[in-house]
Structure formats: structure tokens, C-alpha cells
């Protein structure tokens, strides 16, 4: 049996963990409860691989100064690698009909390992009362 001194064992363990920890993000927040603008969500998961690492931490909807609604969605990455994804906000009127306009396009974003970002959209007009968001893996 080979005996290694304790400092050597610690160095080997640290070196083994280093690739896992590189590039991850630590986050501290003062918020302990949902904001007043938080809304309940209903998710339909079709890509389980993406759901394992990327998930929604919070969704908010509130009026801007001009009176139209703004949506904010917090997306977190629990994986060990930076994740790219595309997203599309679709705004609807009070009857649930989509309101399509020039801003109704897929956009891309990246989330660092262990980090989170907030993506947002402003409604195309005052007739918009609700929204949905679609998320998919980024195309390389």
C-alpha cells in the first residue's frame, strides 16, 4: 500500500474538484419571498435534458410607466457548464388571442454555470393582458 502525506492527499482532492468549480457562479440575494408582481406559472416540459439544468425561478408581470405590461422571467442554470438557449415571448389579449408584432422573434441568451439571468419583454400594446414564453436549446 502506498502512503501519501496528508497535504498531498488534499492537493489531489482539490485538483480533482477544480474542473467542476471553474466557471460556476455564486449568488446571494436579500429576497426571501416572492415579489408582489410574481405570477403563478404552468410549465409544459418537452425537453427533459434542458429542464434538468435550466429552470425558471420566478416570473413577474407588472405595468410600466406608460401603462403597458412588462414580463420578467428569472432563468437559473444548475449545471456545471454555461448553457445557451433561445426564447420567445408571446403576448395575448384578454381572450387569449396572440398579439403578433415586429418584436415577436426568437432571441438568444446564455447562463453561466450555477448562475441565473433575468429575461424580459414589454407588451406590444395596452390590449396585452397575459403572456407565454417558449424556451429551447440554442442552435449551434
Write the layout of secondary structure elements.
Layout (H helix, E strand, L loop, with lengths): L5 H16 L26 H6 E10 L5 E9 L5 E10 L5 E2 L7 E5 L4 E7 L7 E8 L3
Antiparallel strand pairs: 1-2, 2-6, 3-4, 3-5, 3-7
The shape, in one word, is elongated
Number of domains: 1
Q: What is the CATH C-level name?
A: Mainly Beta
Topology as a string of helices (H) and strands (E): HHEEEEEEE
Can you tag this structure with a few keywords?
140 residues, alpha+beta, Immunoglobulin-like, 7 strands, 16% helix, 36% strand
In short:
The protein has 2 helices and 7 strands; from the N terminus they run H-H-E-E-E-E-E-E-E. The chain has 140 residues and is of the alpha+beta class.
Textual characterization of the structure:
- With 140 residues, the protein is of the alpha+beta class.
- The chain has one domain (36-137): Immunoglobulin-like (Sandwich), CATH 2.60.40.
- It has 2 helices and 7 strands; from the N terminus they run ααβββββββ.
- The strands form 2 sheets. Strands 3, 4, 5 and 7 form a 4-stranded antiparallel beta sheet that branches.
- A hairpin with a 5-residue loop joins strand 3 (83-92) and strand 4 (98-99).
- It is elongated, with a radius of gyration of 20 Å.
- The termini are far apart.
- Residues 8-31 have low confidence and may be disordered.
